[in-house]
Amino acid sequence: MPSFRSSRVVVDDEVRPASVRWENGVVVAIGDGLADHDFGELVVFPGLVDSHVHVNEPGRAGWEGFATATRAAHAGGATTIVDMPLNSVPPTTTVEALDAKRRAAEQQLGVDVAFWGGVVPGSADNVPALVESGVCGFKVFLIDSGVPEFPPVDVATLDGLSIHLPILVHAEADDLVGEPGPTYAEYLASRPPEAEAKAIRDVAGLDSPVHILHVSSADGVDAIATSPGVTGETCPHYLTFTDEEVTGVEFKCAPPIRGREHREALWEGLLAGTLNMVVSDHSPAPPELKRGDFATAWGGISSLQIRVPVVWTGAARRGIDFAMLSRWLSHAPAVLAGLDDRKGSIAVGKEADFAVFDPDGETLVRGKDLKHRHPLTPYEGMRLRGRLVDTVLGSPARMLTRND
Fold first, then answer.
1. Residues 6+ apart with CB under 8 A from 343
2. 26-31 and 14-23 strand pairing
3. What would the pLDDT profile of 92-114 be if each residue is shown by its tens digit?
């Protein structure tokens, strides 16, 4: 029966000394005794859960695939990822497309993988069958997604769904978004924070649970705070960079990276519980699509492997503890995806997935060392606080369905 101990284990929403034993991939005891392996003062988190990852296979495996994405996840302490329904071809808007996704993932997984479904115009009738097939919820765009096979839907379509699973909303109001120019200042101005806030208010009254993806602005935080029942996430790049630090198209994402006051509002939103998780929105593309100017380059930032040290670098400066970090990086994403009966916390009966982290170490980011398919990263050359030491997956990696 394998076991470990550490003086700093995140258990019961606190950090304390503990020894953990597991059998057949499931935790069977948490105590104070000796163990097979002693991690000393390293922090042991539950295996991290990243509920916002674009794997893109099948169809665009040249952008990212299951083998490389899950290898990067494992290298970064994530033991479970939830795959977005785009930019794969076909998108996961039918059971047939979900089956194709699962076939593509077979024999390639380095960590556990679950799947989001998607809703596009004309696909609402597919939702019940996708729910029955075990998707975790449904991703939608209120604005052009950037790929023709995943067009946006209107709020009336979403209002007609009335499902118990979460609807994940890319929240930018189309009528407030303009055409971008080639410079970052022009791109930023074309996607103002008011567009995010208006879209959040537009979906706040849906009958289904609503979760707002990649919140980027103080306006977005305020809109969620005044919308009961709506949850929200943000991403490492919004918590790290400001518009003043954007030096090239490797920083391009949608919504865009904004000013310092927005970054600080996101941290405050996390501390207040208005935002409840930090996920990567790992969205890779080949280098040839990440060239040119801000009007033409593909948007998306890859940070699946470095989510912990990026967030810890900012969190440590603000006196944030490891228990809160664990809630943002593991527990809340597991709850959103309906995987929390087995993932997201260290507890008897939960799966034996762990991330071992040295908070006093250092991570030097070099794109060539990252495990995802393409090396381009806005974090190139940064020295981040903390270092992932080990990732423990109690059972062989597999595909998951929602708890229900």
1. 46, 47, 49, 79, 80, 112, 330, 334, 350, 351, 353
2. antiparallel
3. 999 999 999 999 999 999 999 99
